[in-house]
Amino acid sequence: MTHSKSTTRGRRGRWRRSEPSPTGAPSRRHRDVFKTLGPGLITGAADDDPSGIGTYSQTGAQLGYGASWTMLLTFPLMVAIQEISARVGRVTGHGIAGNACRHYPASLLIAIVILLFVANTINIAADLGAMADASRLLIGGPAFAYVLMFGITSVAAQIFLDYRRYVAVLKWLTLSLFAYVAALAVAQVSWSEAIAGLLIPRVDFSAPFLTTIVAILGTTISPYLFFWQASQEAEDQRVDAGKRPLIQRHHGAQEEFHRIRADTIIGMAFSGLIAVAIILTAAATFHAAGKTDIETSAQAAEALRPIAGPFAETVFALGIVGTGLLAVPVLAGSAAYAIGEGLRWPVGLARKPKKAAAFYGVLALSAAIGILLNFTPINPIQALYWSAVINGVLAVPVMVLLMAMARRHDVMGGFRVEGPLYWLGWLATVVMALGVVAMAIAWAL
What we know:
Number of strands: 2
Strand content: under 5%
Strand order of the largest sheet: 1-2
Number of domains: 1
């Protein structure tokens, strides 16, 4: 009698089924790799939110190919500071605010958290407005209805969806960023100029240029990303019964640090690649056509039609909606984590609403204010540019706090950050500080 699956004799003489041929092994490996990616991938993708897309589009339209070098500069700095943030969360079991409230004066944390909440809320308002405008371009209808729909949906998903399912949704939403690679593919890029702009820095010491650079730094190296990734590493430990803070259970520490590094590098590389694609697309279309007045991502999508065709407009608009659905929860969530951890409330998206009512209340409040700003005389898009500058300025004290925290034995135990990663983190801090000082001097003069 024949069987479809072969059998072999085991060492103890018992028959067992042999493993099927690994024809599906590569696809399984790819799925396994994707499953291991988490906070770093989501953080990197959320960095390219609709407001960030607007900033990159504006940069490419105004400065052409000559601004893309900033993404090469920021990549190692982003990786270093995000990896340090993740390590703090994984080692201690607390986010940045949770550690700060235990080891630093409350007045310092209050100032940082207030600025973070304000900047994040303005960012949410601008992102919702951009998503609404992009949806109107795609299918028509009133913008205010889309603002309400996207805002309420984002908050409801965070509050009521199972945590693991919610994280899986966020991971899949990262794929929406490939829309900008597709848009770049149909743009008439001068690759010699693009490569030169990527590899050869061009600096103009005018106030508008330096402000744009600080806005780019504030968009790519944003405080809310530090808080989010650290808190998500801590959150994963609350969800996974097999995990404990490394300061309590040392076993497997190096494997966890390798995972964090790979996750962060992939996430930040993904973010940087998309940002370069957007800058080059804007340079090849708007700047080449003499159109330098792009202010928002939705304007960029609309303006692409007569220059690059309806396909480019459609994929650009779809990318705005997809990235907004990813970024709004991260913005609202990072503010809620910062405030909740700072006040030592029960926090976490894995908790039921009744178990963390205040945490979810802050999250909903941030999103609600963001929705309402779209119905006031305040133009959230105009406020967005300055929220990016606020992020750039706020990043400096947060990064100093983070670097000091990562070195303290009473915080990190035997897992203090040392070596090249430590010094690269300080280099990122110094670069951000120099950018802010240069901007202030330029505006003063």
